[in-house]
Amino acid sequence: MNYVREINAFTDWLETNPLESTTIALWFILMGINNKCGWREWFTVANLTLQAKIRVSKNTVIKHRSILVEKGLIQYENQGREVGKYRMVSLINNRGVHNTPQYEPTFEPTYEPEGKPECDPIKSISGNNSPIRTPKQEPMDSSAGNLPPYLEPIPEPNPAPLIKLNKTKQNIKDIYKDIYTIFHHWNHQKIITHRNLNEVTKEHIRATLAGGYTVEEITSAIDNYAEVLNGQQYYWTYRWGLDEFLLRGVDKFKTASNPRTNFLKDKSKVPDKAQVSTNKYDKYAEYTNRVVAYDDL
């Protein structure tokens, strides 16, 4: 498949076959995943990955996947408990959608030669053939510094695409570095240790980063989750794997959600926020103010 031609053909197809925005987003995501897979005829994608990318529920993914199958844009095979298989149907090969104009010119250009011919006739060696013309050499005007009219200067190469390509490669390297950082940080906490970093987990981490979370926020949420699981003063005991934590636990255990207070068994041990100083420059900000009688001093 040609990635750009398929996208252009799909855009043209939508002009006469409108779809919901979620259905369109699902097609683009499946096309992008197939592109990363090297255009395999059949490829697998987990429902959790599609849910994370589109930010919808499982039933919504199934609904819009059925629409794409009904329209003949994709093929899907249910594998039971295994990850489902997808096949992208080419709009170029199967539907005859092309981006070339659907008309023929109604006139032929007419022109008349101007000026003298660019070559002089010479006689054939045998004397029987038609005259052969050779290009006329025009003197070069060295004083003007110009090239002959039949030569064009070679343009300078544009470095912008190469710079953009280098930036794209650097961004990809940074994303993979962030993915491995988060994966190894999760295993270091020994909540549930994963032996290998598979493609599904990579997609979940990439989707969480694309959703606005930084690496520091995700690793801090993992630290908070490990602290709550291992602390006797907390009531939360359910252990998630990394995939499920990225989908359901990051928002609960991020530092801004204050999980080390929300999951305490005894909330009476939490200091009164009204009595705690909020001045970040005060070295006694974490101490609670108390009222003491003068005689007790």
Describe this structure in words.
With 297 residues, the protein is mainly alpha-helical. Among the domains are: 3-95, Winged helix-like DNA-binding domain superfamily/Winged helix DNA-binding domain (Arc Repressor Mutant, subunit A, Orthogonal Bundle), CATH 1.10.10.10; 162-275, no CATH class. 43% of the residues lie in helices and 6% in strands. The strands form two sheets. The chain has a three-stranded antiparallel β-sheet with strand order 1-3-2. A two-stranded antiparallel ribbon has the order 4-5. A hairpin with a 7-residue loop joins β2 and β3. α3 (47-54) runs parallel beside α7 (199-210) and α6 packs parallel to α8 (215-230). The longest helix has 30 residues, at 160-189. Residues 96-109 and 274-278 have low confidence and may be disordered.
What key attributes describe this structure?
Arc Repressor Mutant, subunit A; two-stranded antiparallel ribbon; 43% helix; elongated
With strands numbered from the N-terminus, the spatial order across the biggest sheet is 1-3-2
Classification by helices and strands: mainly alpha
Shape: elongated
Mean pLDDT: 77
